[in-house]
Design goal:
This protein has two domains: 31-89 and 150-238, no CATH class; 97-147, no CATH class. Helices cover 20% and strands 40% of the residues. It has helices at 4-14, 33-39, 46-49, 54-57, 115-122, 221-226, 230-238; strands at residues 80-107, 133-164, 170-180, 183-193, 203-205, 210-220. It starts with a helix and ends with a helix.
Length: 241
């Protein structure tokens, strides 16, 4: 019975992203999706199955990808291209609003067949039907809000063509890990690109990637110190105040 809290503590320590006493491990590349795309080619197209004459294969000026002037841009499953990420975004939004309202209502019965005069004699002192009901109301509200964002990111990463869609669009994905001491930096990118947007240098900028997903972060001892403990996160998610 007394060992249960100790077991829970050991289990929570094992769930930490940074191993105790050693650097975080790198993700093995043996079974990654990038490697699978490289070793498993897609269906060949007509250009790939076209056989050139022997004389043409020996020429330096053919259109073959292996020739001197051949187009070496990534076009098929398993090919690699460079993704250039240069984000320098600024956004500033400021809103203000104001509203006010006032109203006044009065209702009285100064004359009604002499009834108010007879009733005033019987009413308590100070009561008078000439101003039977008087209502005043006023309201005012003001609101101000502003948003300022400034983001700058410059990165380059090699991505692999994971699949060629039926319309010719390329599905790409890339990941990069760099470990310095006990901190591991991770960069992930994925999305869809048109073959025509790939430059002659076999590069594509992030603004030409549809459904782009860019993740830049890491894990390790420093990252663990910046995150609240699991118990604190559980309390914050459950406490209503």
């Amino acid at each position: 019975m007394h060992a249960s809290p100790l077991i829970c503590l050991v289990f929570l320590a094992a769930c930490a992203s940074s191993p105790i006493g050693r650097a975080p491990p790198l993700t093995p590349i043996a079974d990654t999706a990038d490697r699978t795309a490289m070793v498993t080619y897609g269906l060949p197209n007509n250009l790939e199955t076209t056989r050139l004459p022997k004389a043409a294969k020996a020429s330096l000026w053919t259109g073959d990808r292996a020739s001197l002037l051949g187009d070496r841009r990534a076009v098929q499953r398993g090919d690699i291209l460079t993704v250039v990420i240069e984000i320098d975004d600024r956004a500033e939004i400021s809103n203000s609003s104001g509203r006010s309202r006032s109203a006044s209502q009065q209702m009285g019965v100064p004359q009604l067949f002499g009834i108010p005069q007879r009733a005033n004699d019987r009413l308590p002192e100070g009561a008078d039907l000439s101003t039977a009901v008087e209502v005043n109301s006023s309201s005012a509200s003001n609101g101000d809000g502003s948003v300022r964002r400034n983001e700058k990111l410059t990165l380059r990463i090699a991505a692999t063509i994971m699949d060629v869609l039926p319309n010719g669009v390329l599905s790409i994905a890339g990941q990069q890990e760099v470990r310095v001491n006990f901190e591991l930096r991770e960069l992930l990118v994925s999305g869809f690109v048109r073959p025509a947007d790939v430059s002659r240098q076999n590069e594509i900028t992030y603004d030409k990637i549809a459904s782009a997903r860019v993740s830049y972060g890491g894990r390790g001892q420093i990252t663990d110190m910046q995150q609240p403990r699991y118990g604190q996160q559980a309390l914050e998610s459950g406490l209503p105040f």
